[in-house]
Design brief:
Layout (H helix, E strand, L loop, with lengths): L1 E5 L2 H18 L4 E4 L6 H12 L8 E4 L1 E4 L9 H10 L5 E3 L8 H14 L5 E4 L21 E4 L2 H6 L12 E4 L2 H6 L2 E6 L5 H9 L18 E5 L11
Parallel strand pairs: 1-10, 2-3, 2-6, 3-5, 6-9, 9-10
Antiparallel strand pairs: 4-8, 7-8
Helix pairs in contact: 1-2
The structure holds 2-phosphoglycolic acid.
The site of 2-phosphoglycolic acid has 7 residues, from loops.
Length: 240
Amino acid sequence: MKVEVHKTYDELSKAAADLIASVIKNKPNALICVASGHTPTGTFKFLRDHIDAGLDISKTVFVSLDEWLGIDPSDAGSCISMLRKDFFDHVKARIELFDVLAKDPRKECDRMNKFIDDNGGLDVMLVGIGLNGHIGMNEPGTPFDKYAHVSDLAEETKTSGQKYFTKPTTLSKGITLGLRHFAECRLPILMANGSKKSEIIKKVIDSPITEKIPASIIHRISQALVMLDAEAASRLPQSL
Ligand code: PGA
């Protein structure tokens, strides 16, 4: 695992976008998982600049990390609505999504696992981190060896997730790629910005590997890259 600290959110976002663009240049048909949420919005902005400047994503396949169950995908707070607003409404790209309206969400997980397998596994997985250390909707206690699965949301996620919605919204379950996808990905990127994330980042970096803190899995992933801005890294020792 490697930790990279960038001075500002803009610099962090640009570095992540440059990295993803270089993966796509080397492997045009790369399979790239992207998270929604506030953390990657800057990355999407800079990635759009790459595409506007000629980066060819016509063979690239994007996969969405997770989605709320029980929320209509057209709701502005759904993960796909956020991804569309930040990225997919602006570029012509292929995206593979969880169908949250599927009758059997577990079968939908199997379908997504097979899709990823059939496409040779994930080249990049860009994820944020929750204040409780979750990755995607892999909440504390989720076994590290799970692929896509239906998740019971942690209380903290039900509360913090309200920030995406225009009105109070009942959140209870989600559907998410698993931590095993993150561990097996060729370039797993855990990204965090802002002082609000500094405490959980310190906890994750100091923590032994434990399923109680999902993001602590990074300690076992040699190819994992933790990308932070200075505020998120503010509680870490300078030497990191
Ligand atoms: P955020 O969410 O990017 O909106 O901070 C991250 C997360 O909860 O996984």
